């Protein structure tokens, strides 16, 4: 099978992640502790790169949800598979997502994490499909705005394929 067509190169991702890390480090300086909450599975590579480039103290938590069962159709419901393990009460939380598409996952997660009574909850997404929004959510840090095409790579999959591609590519999904 052909490789997915490059939408965002490794170099462009690296540069943008550097910029996001600098911005987040500046905004949260003096506001520690900052807890980065990575949303599994898709955010694992973005979180690894972003977290290592921050210049402020930070801790890492993971949460796992699933909305797209096999392919590219949102199931309509967000399923919580794993909650954060640590105590985030009174801490500043930054949700780290690979992509915001319909917005349903992030909307659900903000409500879910707010119930843990953190000091604040903000959001960071590498990719945003603004045209696809079904639920309004605020994204405080956005890497790239993209069109409504199915993207893979840098953590993102189509039916579990292509997550480890080093760039963001576009594919034509079957469904
Ligand atoms: C993907 C992605 C986001 C969510 C965004 O997760 O990682 O969490 O969909 O879509 P939305 O804005 O339409 O809700 P998915 O459910 O595919 O799980 P995965 O991260 O394990 O691939
Ligand atoms: C979820 C998701 N996962 C991978 N690629 C996309 O384009 C996606 N939209 N929503």
In this structure, how is the largest beta sheet organized?
6 strands, mixed
Q: What number is the mean pLDDT?
A: 94
The percentage of residues in β strands lies in 25-35%
Category from helices, strands and their pairing? alpha/beta
* Spatial strand order of the main sheet: 4-3-2-5-6-7
Rg (CA only):
15 Å
* Gap from first CA to last CA: 18 Å
What is the N-to-C order of secondary-structure elements (H for helix, E for strand)?
EHEHEEEHEEEE
Tell me the overall shape.
Answer: globular
Low-confidence stretches: none
The count of strands amounts to 9
Q: Helix coverage percent of residues?
A: 10-25%
The ligands found in this model are:
1-O-pyrophosphono-5-O-phosphono-alpha-D-ribofuranose, 7-hydroxy-pyrazolo[4,3-D]pyrimidine
- Alpha plus pi helix count: 3
Walk me through this protein's architecture.
With 175 residues, the chain is an alpha/beta fold. Helices cover 23% and strands 35% of the residues. The chain is built from 3 helices and 9 strands, in the order βαβαβββαββββ. The protein has helices at 10-28, 44-53, 104-114, and strands spanning 5-8, 34-40, 58-68, 74-82, 92-100, 120-128, 141-145, 150-152, 168-171. The chain has a 6-stranded mixed beta sheet with strand order 4-3-2-5-6-7, sandwiched between helices. A 3-stranded antiparallel beta sheet has the order 1-9-8. The protein is globular. The model has no long low-confidence stretch (mean pLDDT 94). The structure holds 1-O-pyrophosphono-5-O-phosphono-alpha-D-ribofuranose (PRP) and 7-hydroxy-pyrazolo[4,3-D]pyrimidine. Residues 39-42, 66-68, 74, 97-105, 157 line the site of 1-O-pyrophosphono-5-O-phosphono-alpha-D-ribofuranose.
């Amino acid at each position: 099978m052909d490789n997915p067509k490059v939408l965002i190169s490794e170099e462009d991702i690296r540069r943008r992640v550097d910029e996001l890390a600098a911005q987040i480090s500046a905004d949260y300086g003096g506001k520690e502790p900052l807890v980065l909450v990575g949303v599994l599975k898709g955010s694992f590579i973005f979180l690894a790169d972003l977290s290592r480039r921050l210049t402020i103290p930070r801790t890492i938590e993971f949460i796992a949800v699933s909305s797209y069962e096999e392919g590219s159709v949102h199931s309509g419901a967000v399923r919580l598979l794993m909650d954060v393990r640590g105590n985030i009460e009174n801490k500043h939380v930054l949700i780290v997502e690979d992509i915001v598409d319909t917005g349903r996952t992030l909307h659900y997660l903000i409500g879910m994490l707010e119930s843990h009574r953190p000091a604040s909850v903000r959001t960071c997404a590498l990719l945003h499909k603004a045209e696809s929004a079904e639920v309004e959510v605020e994204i405080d840090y956005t890497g790239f705005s993209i069109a409504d095409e199915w993207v893979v790579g840098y953590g993102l999959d189509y039916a579990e394929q292509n997550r480890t591609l080093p760039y963001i590519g576009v594919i034509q999904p079957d469904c």
